[in-house]
Amino acid sequence: MPSAILTPILGTVIIWAASAIAGLTLAALLATGSLSQSPLVRHPADLVILLTRGVPTSLLVVVAGLAAMPQVPPAWMPNPFPGTSDGMVLVAWAIVVALALGSTGHLAVIFRSGYRSLGTARLEQARVLGLSRWRRYRLLVRESATASLPPTGARMVHHLHNTAFAALFPVADLFGWVQGRSHETFEVTRYATIGAGVYVVLSFLIWTATRILEHRLGTRRRTPVVRTGSAPRVPIGGRA
């Protein structure tokens, strides 16, 4: 049995990773757009955030899966999902997109709130430092991570649990394995316990990775400031 469960675990991890990366990327773009001074950019971004927050992830997955089921996957489409047949690869990718959208709006609000938590004075200080746009963006992301990382980590754990919706379709995942083995053997308690244990372990790994990142960013912020000349240069979020 240990070898039999590796495929659905790996399938779940890949579905989670692919959809999480897509969701984080889209959320960052939407958060940036919702902070734009241009109404032509801000209003569409706000609308997408509102829609992706308001529509249940389960509904997104069901609609995406049903829409992809009758379609024939193109020959060029990769199949990185262990245990999922090539005929179902389009459905698997549709589920990945649906899961990503299910978390996008929530993550965008987290990122936007983290940015706004810096305060007007600190944001203005970043503007007058004379940094390039990319360096200023990296600086603000690092500074706002203190406020945005904890809820982001929590959302990533919830995102892992949402991957169970993949079991609604012929896509190999951990929850689908639990269901299948329970129906075949009628040992529901046994396989439910195994599945729950694996989800707990994966959730703990996500939480640990987030905590490590929080610690590293916190350590960087506490790095002693190098003074040049008579006037000290204090980084954003640092102490004089």
Please give a quick description of this structure.
The protein has 240 residues and is an all-alpha fold. Helix content is 72%, strand content 0%.
Overall pLDDT confidence: 86
Low-confidence stretches: 223-234
Per DSSP, the total helix count is 8
Tell me what portion of residues adopts beta-strand conformation.
Answer: under 5%
- β-strand number: 0
Taken in chain order, the helices and strands follow as HHHHHHHH
Word description of this protein:
The chain is mainly α and 240 residues long. The protein is 72% helix and 0% strand. It contains eight helices and no strands. Helix 3 runs antiparallel to helix 4.
Outline the fold blueprint.
Elements: H1 2-34, H2 39-54, H3 57-68, H4 89-116, H5 120-128, H6 133-162, H7 174-185, H8 188-221
Helix pairs in contact: 1-2, 1-4, 1-7, 2-4, 3-4, 4-6, 6-8, 7-8
